Amino acid sequence: MTIALLNASGCLDALVAPGVARSLDAFVTKTVTPLPREGNPPPRFAETAHGMLNSIGLQNPGIDAFRRDHLPKLEAIGVPIWVSVGGFGAHDFAHVCALLDDRDAVSVIELNLSCPNVEEAPETAAELVQAARAATRKPLYAKLSPVARDIAETARAVAAAGADGLSLVNTIRGLTLDDETLRPQLGRGVGGYSGPALAPVALACVFACALAVDLPIVGMGGVTTGRDALDLLAAGASAVALGTILFSDPASPTRVRKELEAEATARGYGSPAEIRGIARPEAVSAVASPE
């Protein structure tokens, strides 16, 4: 059994780089909202010593143009499509999900419940999932924030509301200042922080949620090597998404896949899938006491 590799939403434009998209097991779109959005004011990207800040602000053409113009082109690339859905209230999520329900090209809907660059919906994550669940039969993955007060409790709540899986994690809010002016480098000030420094945070979230719920988890955050992917699997992820690394290394899906296989083989496993959850306390106890 192979482990699926995806891209994190917003980290790859499949229409610009279809070859990179085809090297993945599924392509995740940028977040789509009911109406078109221009996004946040520039600058929208800033590099840091150990990662990157972005403040895109959910720029997208809106669901109508996405269905009409973008989805047919994405379908032609030939990989399963996950559509990231966002909004500013339960009605927004339900509206977009309903308009995707009859599209065979859409394999999964990922609910962006945790974008740090826009105002949050007034409803809880569970209420947003419940509204989306009532609007579509598609599999729903809830993308959660690493700064949730208790991410394991949030995972239990969205599972009870009808989520079929989890995407862990979204970016974390950060700030970087210009060397000369000491002013924020991003037009909005703060942005979503991603990159290698996010890896331990993502790992802790995957570990906590895998113990809390029996749902498939796409682990993401700071993955740059096969070892990073291996760690997420050991913590309980069932698939892995690549994010910031795609900007600097478009060939990373092929490389990470090979490195992951090599890491598993070096540890005596037949496939990376056998490593899933090995870091959990019950797995450690089983190794210590085979009887």
Verbal overview:
By secondary structure, this protein is of the alpha/beta class. The protein has one domain (4-37, 57-175, 198-288): Aldolase class I (TIM Barrel, Alpha-Beta Barrel). It is built from 10 helices and 12 strands.
Brief write-up:
The protein has helices spanning 18-22, 63-77, 90-100, 125-135, 151-161, 199-212, 226-235, 245-248, 252-266, 281-288; strands at residues 4-7, 27-28, 45-48, 51-54, 81-85, 106-112, 140-143, 165-168, 172-174, 191-194, 217-220, 239-242.
How many strand elements?
12
How many structural domains?
1
Low-confidence stretches: 284-291
Output the CATH topology.
TIM Barrel
Number of helices: 10
Averaging pLDDT over every residue, what do you get? 95
Helices and strands in order:
Elements: E1 4-7, H1 18-22, E2 27-28, E3 45-48, E4 51-54, H2 63-77, E5 81-85, H3 90-100, E6 106-112, H4 125-135, E7 140-143, H5 151-161, E8 165-168, E9 172-174, E10 191-194, H6 199-212, E11 217-220, H7 226-235, E12 239-242, H8 245-248, H9 252-266, H10 281-288
Parallel strand pairs: 1-12, 2-5, 5-6, 6-7, 7-8, 8-11, 11-12
Antiparallel strand pairs: 3-4, 4-10, 9-10
Helix pairs in contact: 3-4, 4-5, 5-6, 6-7, 7-9
